[in-house]
Design goal:
Structural class of chain A: mainly alpha
Radius of gyration of chain A: 20 Å
CATH superfamily of one domain in chain A: ABC transporter involved in vitamin B12 uptake, BtuC
Order of helices and strands of chain B: EEEHEEHHHHEHEHEEHHH
Largest interface: A-B, 36 and 56 residues
Strand order of the largest sheet of chain B: 5-6-7-3-8-9
CATH class of one domain in chain A: Mainly Alpha
CATH topology of one domain in chain A: ABC transporter involved in vitamin B12 uptake, BtuC
Strand content of chain B: 15-25%
Largest sheet of chain A: none
Number of helices of chain A: 13
Number of strands of chain B: 9
Strand content of chain A: under 5%
Number of strands of chain A: 0
Oligomer: heterodimer
Helix content of chain A: over 70%
Radius of gyration of chain B: 19 Å
Largest sheet of chain B: 6 strands, mixed
Shape of chain A: globular
Structural class of chain B: alpha/beta
CATH architecture of one domain in chain A: Orthogonal Bundle
Order of helices and strands of chain A: HHHHHHHHHHHHH
């Protein structure tokens, strides 16, 4: 273990992965609450179109994917809010279209891009000192915004109409959440890759929800499970020479099943007490 | 908090038109909801009730016509509006407590960036107490019965100190006893605080016994006035395609807010009286506490 921790690239991977994982874990609480798992899949796959555009145009694929994903997320949000097309239909249109665009552009370039695999499956171990500060900054800003607007995002997720009636700027907050989601997904491509990032936007929160008795507890457990998954996933990846992204997601899934079993066991031992009578 | 008296109607709608694509939903709707009154909105499915409420809350914008909420356009009234929906749908197992749900009612007062203070938390406890739900504050909202969930949503709407409460089919899916308790409770709160209530409902019988004004909507306002007058004519059976020409007889409507002695303890009507009307304030078992709201 000490040898594992002594490498510079492992330290960078743990630091970046930890912060990205924590950001995904907090975001995952809202993804679960708002049943947005499919939008996570949609945005992450749309990012491939952005990566392809970046690679072809010779600009940073991460920056191109960021801009492209935020754009796709806003368009999905805008179409959904108009109420004429449902959210899952809008995602179902944009997700394969953006991904097909990515595939077509890469094919048009006529070259096989080895670095594309890194975006598809993630390679946190390749994070260099330059990437480190960029990803830390991105995660820090996303986490800060999530903390700042936590109560508003929660209210919107629980009852958007009541939140509007209470005077909250629902449209602004919805676009803000979609933007954070898109930016976090793009940043987390380095961690687990486009294909697996959507899992990291659901599994930690599902683990937290299984055991928590409050929303705060759910956030804390979600973050803890993400951090443990990143650490253990990287360690197992180093130990058994596994792809780091797959290793992290598999460990997160294993934690969920353990939490699910513990939760079921706890509920069997302590069945919920009947509701006391309340006065009218 | 008691609502200060204000001049003019709480809600004023003039010549409102709205359609989804080619499907017209509201056609020149004009209505007024007097301040500190209980106005009920009835109408069959597809009559435009929910769309009208969404317009009043500022969720969608009118295509033609004017809306004024407490003297301002929707969403710009500068004070929270209490909103009680039919229900809130949480993902299965989401650990949101009753207290958390009610605390959300303070967020409009707090504004962005500010966290709830100790005073806000005290107000939440008081609001829960006022609807008789203080003992369940720590429970998961999802674990409550439908009637209890509705009482929590009233507490959430009231904790923001609104002077206007908009209710969207708040008793859908509740049994008759729970419906009676619900309306008794909101009427108590309305009288205690001088609130304006605007309630869309399919429970024609219940709202007709509690509201001062009944508005029948079927894309346009088909009838409006005292519940007894609205239910007396042919228009309600016509709109609902209901055969009875005299709904006021079917519903045994008394004048609003008159005490009747036909109910037995436990809220059960005498045999042969049917479901029967419920008085504002509702019937209570001997020894039960009053549900009248204190000022939280």
């Amino acid at each position: 273990m000490m040898e594992f921790l002594s490498y510079g690239f492992i330290q960078r991977a743990l630091l970046t992965g930890g912060l990205l994982g924590a950001t995904c874990a907090v975001l995952a609480v809202f993804v679960v609450l708002r049943r947005m798992a499919f939008i996570g899949v949609g945005i992450s796959h749309a990012a491939l179109g952005g990566v392809a555009l970046g690679l072809l145009a010779g600009v940073s694929p991460v920056a191109a994917a960021g801009g492209f994903s935020v754009g796709v997320a806003w368009v999905i949000g805008w179409i959904t809010r108009r109420g004429e097309v449902s959210e899952d239909t809008a995602i179902g249109i944009f997700f394969p279209t953006a991904m097909a665009l990515g595939v077509a552009l890469i094919s048009l370039s006529g070259t096989y891009r080895q670095d594309l695999l890194g975006y598809l499956f993630g390679n946190i171990l390749s994070v260099g000192p330059g990437d480190l500060w960029f990803l830390l900054g991105l995660s820090g800003v996303s986490l800060g915004i999530l903390a700042l607007f936590f109560k508003e995002f929660l209210f919107l997720g629980v009852d958007e109409e009541a939140a509007k009636a209470a005077g909250l700027p629902a449209a602004f907050l919805n676009y803000l959440l979609l933007s954070i989601m898109a930016v976090t997904i793009v940043a987390a491509m380095k961690l687990v890759g486009i294909i697996l990032v959507s899992a990291f936007l659901v599994i930690p929160a599902a683990t937290g929800q299984t055991l928590a008795r409050s929303v705060r507890g759910m956030v804390a457990l979600s973050v803890a499970s993400a951090l443990v998954s990143v650490f253990m996933g990287l360690w197992l990846s180093w130990l058994w020479n596994l792809p780091s992204g797959a290793s992290i997601v598999l460990f997160a899934a294993a934690l969920f099943f353990v939490a699910y079993a513990l939760g079921t066991l706890r509920d069997r031992r302590t069945p919920p007490s009947p509701l006391p009578p309340t006065r009218s | 908090m008691t609502c200060p008296p204000r001049e003019g109607p709480a809600i004023q709608v003039e010549g409102l038109w709205f359609s989804y694509g080619n499907r017209s939903v509201l056609e020149g709707v004009s209505l007024e909801v007097p301040t500190a009154s209980f106005v009920a909105l009835i109408g069959p499915n597809g009559a435009g009730k929910s769309t009208l409420l969404r317009l009043l809350l500022g969720i969608v914008k009118p295509q033609r016509g004017k809306i004024s909420i407490l003297g301002r356009p929707p969403g710009q009234q500068g004070q929270p509006i209490g909103y009680v929906p039919q229900k809130i749908q949480l993902p299965k197992g989401f650990p949101l407590s009753v207290r958390d749900v009610v605390l959300m009612g303070r967020y409009g007062n707090l504004g962005l960036f500010r966290r709830p203070s100790r005073l806000d938390k005290i107000r939440v406890e008081e609001a829960l107490e006022s609807v008789g739900m203080a003992s369940l504050a720590a429970r998961r909202y999802q674990d409550l019965s439908g009637g209890q969930q509705q009482r929590v949503l009233i507490a959430r709407a009231m904790v923001g100190d609104p002077c206007l409460l908009i209710l969207d089919e708040p008793t859908a899916g509740l049994d008759p006893a729970a419906r009676a308790r619900f309306y008794a409770q909101v009427c108590d709160l309305q009288r205690a605080r001088g609130l304006t209530l605007f309630c869309a409902s399919h429970d024609v019988e219940d709202v007709a016994h509690h509201a001062q004004i009944l508005i029948l909507l079927d894309r346009t306002v088909r009838a409006s006035g005292h519940p007894r007058e609205v239910l007396k004519g042919r228009v309600v059976p016509d709109v609902y395609h209901f055969p009875s020409p005299h709904l006021h007889d079917v519903y045994h409507l008394p004048s609003p807010h008159l005490h009747t002695d036909s109910e037995q303890p436990g809220g059960q009507p005498h045999p042969g009286e049917g479901a029967g009307p419920k008085r504002p304030g509702g019937h209570r078992n001997p020894g039960e506490e009053s549900g009248t709201a204190s000022d939280p």
